[in-house]
Write a structure and sequence with these properties.
Number of domains: 1
Number of helices: 9
Structural class: mainly alpha
Keywords: Signal
Oligomer: single chain
Mean pLDDT: 77
Strand order of the largest sheet: 1-3-2
Low-confidence stretches: 1-30, 142-148, 155-159, 252-271
Shape: globular
Distance between the termini: 62 Å
Number of strands: 3
Largest sheet: 3 strands, mixed
Length: 271
């Protein structure tokens, strides 16, 4: 059995709304789509800014290719781990603030597709940094999808967040990620159906010289253009998510969030 981990290096993107500029290296890559799920970038940035020890410029850098991501990564030196680092810190901060929706949004952010080198390419996994929160760590766990090729050999594709929908076996990989995300959302008392919002676009054409695929990118769309333009493709059905989260208990995490909220109210009233 052959184990293969995608190692295509993403090249830089440009983001017009970030105050700190970074270089544009177009070349052969997927076009920008980092603002497609804008509401989650906004929420996660707000949570991250409550306590940002790594001095990360903005959550959007975590969805860019390596060269561009490095411009806003702060003290995170492995850009393949920037998305996890942002989500993990945002989740920690949201939990401390008793912000259940902020926790859900951080989980969804961790599962979003990161820009890849070209249509059909996959992105590198984070292997150098371990997530502090087990809920975030669960989303970065390896999903092994076995494919039987014509020569009867087996390939196991390893992925950690949503991958380009035109990449090998993407439908199965992205579905597995969505179902795991649903479990983690349910574990903190959120609506597991929200996991579908981490989905990506319809597959583009591999080799497309424009590298556009079926993406969108609009920083001025506060909801996210993938939602407002009806471009989101569901990775699973509602029934499949219900089945996946059967037996998942939210009691422990919900209790800790409630305690944090109560403590915050006491502190506010005492001030």
């Amino acid at each position: 059995m052959l184990f293969r981990q995608a190692s295509l290096v993403s090249v830089a993107l440009a983001c017009s709304v970030i105050a700190r500029p970074y270089p544009m290296h177009l070349g052969k890559r997927e076009v920008p789509q980092e603002h497609s799920h804008e509401k989650f970038l906004t929420s996660v940035s707000a949570s991250l800014n409550l306590n940002n020890p790594d001095d990360i410029t903005d959550s959007v850098f975590a969805l860019l290719g390596s060269a561009a991501a490095a411009q806003g990564a702060g003290t995170i030196t492995d850009t393949d781990c920037l998305q996890q680092a942002v989500a993990d810190q945002a989740f920690t901060n949201a939990r401390a603030a008793g912000d259940s929706q902020g926790m859900v949004d951080a989980l969804i952010f961790r599962a979003l597709e990161r820009n890849s080198a070209s249509v059909g390419a996959t992105t590198n996994a984070c292997t150098s940094i371990a997530a502090v929160n087990p809920e975030i760590a669960a989303i970065q766990q390896v999903y092994s999808i076995v494919i039987l090729r014509q020569d009867q050999s087996l390939i196991v594709i390893i992925n950690f967040q949503h991958q380009d929908p035109a990449s090998p076996n993407a439908a199965a990989v992205n579905k597995a990620i969505t179902l795991e995300l649903a479990k983690q959302i349910a574990s903190i008392g959120g609506d597991p159906q929200d996991a579908l919002q981490a989905g990506t676009f319809a597959p583009g054409t591999v080799g497309d010289p424009t590298a556009k695929g079926n993406t969108c990118d609009d920083a001025n769309d506060v909801e996210g253009c993938i939602f407002t333009q009806n471009l989101l493709v569901d990775d699973a059905t509602a029934d499949e998510i219900i089945a996946a989260v059967a037996g998942v208990s939210a009691s422990d995490v919900s209790a800790s969030a409630t305690t944090a909220t109560a403590a915050a109210k006491v502190a506010t009233s005492s001030a």
